[in-house]
Amino acid sequence: MSDDEFRGLRRAADYQFGGGGGTALFAGADALDVTHTSSGRPRQVHATDGRIATYGDDGRFRLGLAGGSRLLDAFDGPRHRVVVGDESEPFIREGRNAFAKFVQSADSALRPGDEALVVHEDGYLLAVGRAELPGSGMDDFETGMAVKVRQGTAD
User: What is the Cα–Cα distance from 114 to 147, expressed in whole angstroms?
Assistant: First the structure.
C-alpha cells in the first residue's frame, strides 16, 4: 500500500469514526493487505487477524470483526457501542440482528446508518453492523431493529 493511499484511508476513517479511528484501524500499515477494484479504488483491507473493513462506493467503511475489535480496544465506552445482555448474546454471536428491546445502553452519538459495535454488558465484542435507530433512543424503544448485524463473532 502506498503512503498516499494509506493516508487517504486513515483520513476517511478519522472522519467516519472520529479522531484516532484511522490510527486504530490501520496500525501496522506494512502488514495490511488492500484489494482494489478494477478502477484502482481501495476495496477491502485485511490484516493477519482478519478483515478490517470494506471501503464502500459511498466513501464509508463497513467494519469487519478485526476492525471492530481494533476500535473497541482504541476507544473508551460508550463510543460506537450498543450494549446488550445475556438474553440476546447467543443470537447476536450467530449474526442475527440486535433488537431494541434487548439494548441496555448505546452511544448517544450513533445515528441510523453509522457503523456500530454490538458488545456484551461485560465489554466483549459480539458483532459489528449498521445502526438502524438513533443511539439516543435505542434503549427507549420496545420494538424494532436497533442494529443490522453484518457479522457475529461465531462466524
Answer: 10
Binned at pLDDT 50, 70 and 90, residue 155 comes out as low
| Average pLDDT of the chain, as a whole number | 93
* Residue 62 and residue 30 in one domain: yes
Distance CA 131, CA 62 (A): 12
Whole-number Å distance between alpha carbons of 139 and 104: 6
Residues 123 and 62 in one domain: no
Reported as type and span, the H/E element at residue 22 is: helix 21-25
CA dihedral (136, 79, 122, 112) positive or negative: positive
Q: Give residue 68's region: left, alpha or beta (phi > 0; psi -120 to 50).
A: alpha
